[in-house]
Amino acid sequence: MNFDKNDPMTLSLMDIKAELVQELEFDDIIQDFSSKKARKKMMQVLLLQLLLVSLASASRHYGGTVAFTYKGRNPDGTLQVDLRTTSVFKGCYHDYSLSCYTGNCGNISRRQRGVVDSNNNTSSNFTGQWCETESVEIRKVPNDRPFQIRTIGCCWVKNRNSLSNWTLLTSVDLRTRSDTGQPNRSPDVAILHVLRVPQNCPRTYRMMAFDPDGDRVRCRYGNIRNVECSTCYQPPGFYIDQDSCTIDYRSASYDTSRVFGFEMVVEDFRHENVILSYSDGYTTPQATNMTNLNTTTAPLSKLPLQFSVFVDPPTPSCQEGYYLPKFVAPTPRNGARIQAEVNKEVDIRVKAQAAYTKIQNIFMTGPLNISKHRTTHNEFVIRWTPTPDNMGEHFPVCFAVESVSGSRIFQSEMRCVLVDVGKEQIKTNVICKESTMTVEVEKSTFAGLHEEHLRLIDPSKTVCSLQTHSNSTHVIGVIPLNACGTEIEEDEENLIFKNEITTFDITENTITRHHLLEVRFYCQYPKRGNVTLGFTAHRKNVTVWDKGFGTFTYNFEFYPNNQYQTRIDPILYPLEYDLGIPMYIQIFAETLVNNTDLFVESCRATPYDNPNSRPSYTIIENGCIVDSTIQTYPTVNERQFRFSMEAFKFIGLHDQVYISCAVMMCEAGNPDTRCSQGCVNTTWSNNRRGKREIVTQTLRHRISQGPLRLKRSAERTESPVMNLNLNLVFIAGCLLAAVSAVVMYKAKVSRVKYQPLPAFES
Known about the structure:
Helix content is 7%, strand content 42%. Strand 14 (238-241) and strand 15 (246-249) form a beta hairpin.
C-alpha cells in the first residue's frame, strides 16, 4: 500500500502508529512475531489504531488553538516550555495529540486537561452542540533552537467552505531577545470558537491578540494547504483586517446546519531592530520596522487559531437590546485589562438585556479551571483563581451571551478581556463561620495605613469597627453576615456574603484622599446540604468548619407531639413506635442571618444504609409531598420545617428504616429562588397512592448526598410493633464550597479596575 506523506490523514495515522509502536515495544514484537505474546501485542496495536481512527473520523472539529509559554531553565539545563492547547469538538472526550513537525520538540514531563465550557443545546432546528477543553503540556526542550509542533486529524463539523481535515501548526523560537534579555514570548490569542450572527446584521469580531514583548501582532488566513489550513478557502461575506486582527461580517446566506470554518494564523513581528541570539553563540539580525513590513519578513512565532461561525436567519431588528442581547454595566468593555493576584480569585461580572428575547446563557473561553455562574440578579460571574505557575503570564478571556425566543437563538457581540497575573500584594486571610466572616490583613504589606483610616461598607455600628480586633501586625475585622453593609448574593448553588475594606478620611464622610487600599472579600455557602436520619442511638448534631470554611448548622429532631415545645430527650433513645403512629419531626437551621429561608427539597427512605438500595420509599420529592400521611405545622420562622408522618416498615424481613432529606437555604423574599418555587413536580399527582400502604416498596431511585449510619432493631417479624432506633444525625450541614478573598491594591485615588490596552494593541 502506498501512503501520501503530504496527506494529513495519512500523517495522522502514521503519528498514531508511531506512538503505539513505541508504547508496545514494537521492535521486540518484530523480532519474535511467532510468539503468542507478540501476536497479542500486534493485535493490540491494530485494535487501538482502528479505535483511534474511528474516533478521529467522528470527532467533529469546531476549532482550537495552540500557544506556548517559556517558563525558565530546569536544573538539568533543559528549557521548560508550556504548550496550552484549546480544542472544541462535539464531545468532551476528544482532544488534540501534538507531534513534532520540525526541530527538537523535547519530551512531555507533565500534562493537565479539563473542560472549559460546553453547549448542550439540543434544539432540532439548530446544530451547535460543542465542548471546549484545554490541555497544558509541560515540555522539557533540550535547547533554544526553533521547532514546530502540530496536530492534525479529521474531521471538521459540517461546513460551508469545503473543510475536511484540520491541521494546527505552531512555530516556537526561544532565542534570547536583545531588548528584553529573555527568550521571545508568543502572543496571547483567543476567540470564541463557536460564534453566531444573524444573516442581516453586520458585525465586527476582534480577536484577542496581545504580545507580552510589545511586538506587533498580525492575524491572517492560512495559505499553505495541509500545513496551515485544509483547503485555505476563506469564507465568503467575511473580510479580514490583518493588522487589527478583526473580522468583519457583511452578508452571507443563512444556514443553521452548517458553519463557516476559519483557519487563521497569528504572528508577531518586532517594532524595532532586535538581535536574536542562540545560547551557543550564533546570532542573526532581524532588522525590519513594521512601518515598512514586507512579505519577506519572518515572524518571530506563529500560532494557529481556528473557529466556526453560524449564519442564522434574519432577525427583526439588528439593534442591540431588542432581540440581540446588549451588554450593560458592570460588564467590562472589550479589550479591558484585569489585574489578578496569585491564589486569589478574580471575578468578571457580565450582564446583558434584551427586550423581546430571554437571556439564557453565557459562553466563554479562558484558562484551565475557569468557571461561570448565574446569580439570581440576572448577572453572570466568570471566576478564576490563578496558581503560582501562572505568575507573570497573561490570559485572554472571551465571552458572549445568548438569548432565545422559541426555537431562535440570538448571540450578543463577543467581548474579550486580558487577565494579568501578578504576585500577591496584600496578604489576607478569610475565615467563614456560621454567622460571621473574619478577615485578616497583614499591615506589613501596605505601608502607611492604619485601621483608623480603614472602614467596612457600613461602619455605623460598634461591631463594625476595624479597631476592635486589630493588633500591631494585622488589621482584623469580625463581620456579622447580617450587618456592616454585608451584601448577599445568590447563584445556582451558593449563598454569597460580600463586604470590603476601603480607606477614608476621618474628617470627611463622602470623599477620601488616602484611598490606597481596597480589599474585597466574601464567604460562599452552598445552599444544599444533607440531613440524614438513621434508626439507631441519638447523636448530637454536628457542625463542621475549619479554617477557610464556614457552615450553616441543621438539626433533625423528633418531638412527642405537634406542639414542638421540647424535643425527645436523647437518653430515651432508641424510640419505639407502633405501625401507623404519627412521628413528629422538625428540621431547622441555626443561623443568625435573618434573610434566609429553609427549603426541604426531598426525603426518602430505604431499609439499608445505602440510599440507592432497593426497595426505597419516596416521602417528599422536588418539594412535593408524596406520602399521603404527612401533615405540616406552623413554624416560628422560615428556617424551620415541621411535619408528621405515620410510622411504617418495608415488605419482607426488613427491620429498619433509613431516611435522608435534601435541604436548601435561599435568600428570603426572592421570587426567583428554588425555595420560592416550592413544589415543581406535577407528575407525582398521578402516582400518589389513594390509600395509605403501611408496607411499601418502590423502584424509584435517587442518589443521596450523604452516607447513613444505622443499627438494626431486634423486632420479631410477627410482632405488630416496630422498634425504630432513631438516630438523628446531621452530616456536614451546608459545608462551605469555596472561600475567596478578592484583593486589589490601589495607587493614589484610582478605583479603576479595568485598564485600557496600550495604544499599539488597540
